[in-house]
């Protein structure tokens, strides 16, 4: 960008339909007094990047497209382009700006998002994970105004006054609140650009979605990503992204298996030659385990504990297989009989018992997936082993338990909680190679992959 000639760049981009004006950057930034822009009633301002000697301004208007490129050397050029007949004004403005969107692509960062039921992670191409925050949103009940997103919202869980609720819009792997999901995506996409020298908009975005989601939900994520400012949006099924992030050879003629245990869903998939040969998704994962612990505390100790306490107990002493050294910890809550605060000492053996229901369901699901796997691929899996990803796979003894149950080598992938986001990031690094594994989504009558 530094040292570019604005007039020639504009020419190349937009052909001859443009006018040039001389102006200082200060003049240009003052749109309202600019003779050209003064005709326009309500410009929908898209972006200004001011970190380089060259300024970039893009403006769009309801019935005409206008762009400006302003250089620090005081030359500004503008272009107007007639609109094609269009059915929606939003779409028509976008179509006007297509060449510019290509230009934006040079400066924006491609980002991969793991839109998890429990945590949202954002990876930037060639840069790695830049955001890792809980998928929580705090909203005002009556006005529906979003008050906090991410870590800040999670901090509020269980502590909100009556008129504020903290919710997880994707709790069970489905999008329960479209508007809230959209705001959350918007927040994370914007935040991923924070702290960069040049604040660049309109990234190309690859979003990981649970494999069980319906076409309507896929469309909802796609639309939310586009309205959050993405230039291009692609969806990838989470187990695919997790397998890529875990370095499984999914495009080769060899079977590989991933089990992604998240907050709301457990996804099991077997791959070969870039396709998913077996795919299963159940709504039993980390959240269900927290509920198991809450139920156990209530039934055994008449103790009412919060979700976050249950999660802490699970992470600290929870297990799926006997531990080399069993542990205990204090579990605090309210005694349901006395109504007073109470604390009981629980052991890892008790918590393992409490979690056994959910763990057994996951074990059963993996066995069913193996049952469906063709024998040739089973032979490959016996050699390759089964990779575990997602936060739920960090439950102590999970890999051992699954190894015992399946009589195969089961291992937790490196950095298991970031596999999906890293996988989405890798897709962006080698977009052409991975293009075909992206989930199919319909847009404007066109099939995008
Ligand atoms: P999602 O992809 O659905 O957002 P994640 O992969 O981020 O889910 O995993 C979140 C789940 O993992 C939560 O239920 C959390 O309690 C659980 N989790 C995270 N760390 C651990 C741990 N060390 N032991 C057991 N469970 C864990
Ligand atoms: Mg996940």
Features:
disordered C terminus; single chain; 449 residues; alpha+beta; binds magnesium ion; five-stranded mixed sheet; 4 domains; Nucleotidyltransferase, domain 5; flat; disordered N terminus
What gyration radius follows from the Cα positions, in whole Å?
Answer: 26 Å
CATH architecture of the largest domain: 2-Layer Sandwich
Q: Uncertain regions: pLDDT < 50 for 5+ in a row?
A: 1-97, 442-449
* Largest sheet report: 5 strands, antiparallel
Query: What's the N-to-C terminus distance?
Result: 30 Å
Instruction: Give the tally of β-strands.
Output: 23
| Oligomeric assembly | single chain
> What share of the residues does DSSP label as strand, in percent?
25-35%
**What fold name goes in the CATH topology slot of the largest domain?**
Nucleotidyltransferase, domain 5
Order of neighbouring strands in the sheet with most strands: 1-5-4-3-2
Question: How many independent structural domains?
Answer: 4
Find the CATH superfamily of the largest domain. Answer: ATPase, nucleotide binding domain
The hetero molecules present are: adenosine-5'-diphosphate, magnesium ion
Q: Helix/strand/pairing class, anyone?
A: alpha+beta
Overall body shape = flat
The averaged pLDDT comes out at 77
Please report the number of helical segments: 15
């Amino acid at each position: 960008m530094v040292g570019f000639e604005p007039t020639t760049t504009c020419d190349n981009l937009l052909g001859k339909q443009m006018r040039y004006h001389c102006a200082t950057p200060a003049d240009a930034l003052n749109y309202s007094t600019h003779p050209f822009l003064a005709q326009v009633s309500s410009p929908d301002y898209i972006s200004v990047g001011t970190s380089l000697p060259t300024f970039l301004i893009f403006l769009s208007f309801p019935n005409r497209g206008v762009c400006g490129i302003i250089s620090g050397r005081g030359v500004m050029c503008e272009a107007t382009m007639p609109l094609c007949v269009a059915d929606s004004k939003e779409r028509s403005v976008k179509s006007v700006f297509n060449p510019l969107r290509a230009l934006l692509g040079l400066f924006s960062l491609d980002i991969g998002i793991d839109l998890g039921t429990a945590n949202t992670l954002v990876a930037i191409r060639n840069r790695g994970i830049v955001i890792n925050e809980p998928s929580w949103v705090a909203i005002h009940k009556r006005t529906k105004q979003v008050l906090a997103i991410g870590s800040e919202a999670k901090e509020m869980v269980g502590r909100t006054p009556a008129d504020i609720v903290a919710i997880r819009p994707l709790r069970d792997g489905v999008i329960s609140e479209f508007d809230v999901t959209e705001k959350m995506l918007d927040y994370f996409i914007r935040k991923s650009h924070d702290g960069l020298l040049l604040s660049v908009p309109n990234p190309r975005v690859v979003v990981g979605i649970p494999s069980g989601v319906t076409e309507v939900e896929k469309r909802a994520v796609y639309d939310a990503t586009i309205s959050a400012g993405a230039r291009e949006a692609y969806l990838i099924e989470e187990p695919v992204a997790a397998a890529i992030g875990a370095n499984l050879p999914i495009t080769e003629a060899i079977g590989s298996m991933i089990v992604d245990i998240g907050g709301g869903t457990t996804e099991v998939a077997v791959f070969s030659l870039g396709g998913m040969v077996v795919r299963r998704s159940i709504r039993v994962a980390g959240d269900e385990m927290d509920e198991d612990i809450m139920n156990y505390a209530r039934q055994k100790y008449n103790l009412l504990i919060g979700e976050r306490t249950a999660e802490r107990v699970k992470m600290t002493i929870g297990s799926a297989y006997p531990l080399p050294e069993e542990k205990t910890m204090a579990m605090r809550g309210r005694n349901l009989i006395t109504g007073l605060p109470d604390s009981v000492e629980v052991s890892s053996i008790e918590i393992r018992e409490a979690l056994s229901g959910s763990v057994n369901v996951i074990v059963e699901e993996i066995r069913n997936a193996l049952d469906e796997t063709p024998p040739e691929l089973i032979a490959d899996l016996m050699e390759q082993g089964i990779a575990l990803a997602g936060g739920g796979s960090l439950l102590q003894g999970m890999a051992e338990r699954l190894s015992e149950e399946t009589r195969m080598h089961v291992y937790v992938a490196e950095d298991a909680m970031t596999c999906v986001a890293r996988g989405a990031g890798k897709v962006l690094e080698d977009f052409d190679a991975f293009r075909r594994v992206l989930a199919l989504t319909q847009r404007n009558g066109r099939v995008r992959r």
